[in-house]
Amino acid sequence: MNAMAFSVPKKIEAEIDALISHYPEKRSASLMILHALQDHFGYVSGEAMEWTAAKLELQPINILELVTFYPMFRQSPIGRYHLKVCRTLSCALGGSHQLRRGLCKKLGLPEDGHGPATTADGKFTVEFVECLASCGTAPVMMCNEETHEAVSAEKAESILAKCN
Ligand code: FES
């Protein structure tokens, strides 16, 4: 591990230290720390797991187990455009699987995967997520912070076309 490459900003480390101090058992803070690191870095790298383990006086394997168990944690960076396709019931019935496949086909990504997939140029990540709270307008997807409803194949094309 290159110690110079990974560093947690002082402000975030201070927040994490404060968080840990609220728990009688340090390890209880594990998930919240991983969320904080993922929010900052966009994913949880091996270095981030080692850093977390050292902070909590645990072994890296203890942290790796959490990261691999919980689907909300990502182990690789996401693209500049993060396409989140809802796969919960209304959207699944409304065509979200076809939507995801269409996006992946257009972007040259494997069409049958379920986990996040990122283009080689790092521009797009396509990922299934759970309910985006707009179930009446399925299928729903987000492109970064923007929500798109009733996303037809044509609409998906125009969303992609606007990503520069
Ligand atoms: S089921 Fe897709 S937004 Fe709720």
Helix/strand structural class: alpha+beta
> What is the number of beta strands?
5
The main β sheet shows up as: 5 strands, mixed
Helical content stands at: 40-55%
Give, in spatial order, the strands making up the sheet with the most strands: 2-3-1-4-5
Which ligands occur here? FE2/S2 (inorganic) cluster
Unreliable sequence segments? none
The CATH architecture of the largest domain would be 3-Layer(aba) Sandwich
Cα distance, first to last residue?
Answer: 34 Å
What is the name of the CATH superfamily of the largest domain? Answer: Glutaredoxin
Gyration radius from CA atoms, angstroms: 18 Å
CATH topology of the largest domain: Glutaredoxin
Subunit organisation of the chains: single chain
Please describe what this structure looks like.
- The model has no long low-confidence stretch (mean pLDDT 94).
- Strands 2-3-1-4-5 form a five-stranded mixed β-sheet, with helices on one face.
- It starts with 9 loop residues before the first helix and ends with a helix.
- The chain contains seven helices and five strands, in the order H-H-H-H-E-H-H-E-E-E-E-H.
- It folds into two domains: 60 residues, Arc Repressor Mutant, subunit A (Orthogonal Bundle), CATH 1.10.10; 81 residues, Glutaredoxin (3-Layer(aba) Sandwich).
- With 164 residues, it is of the alpha+beta class.
- A hairpin with a 5-residue loop joins strand 2 and strand 3.
- Helix 3 crosses helix 4 and helix 6 crosses helix 7.
- The site of FE2/S2 (inorganic) cluster has 12 residues, from helix 5.
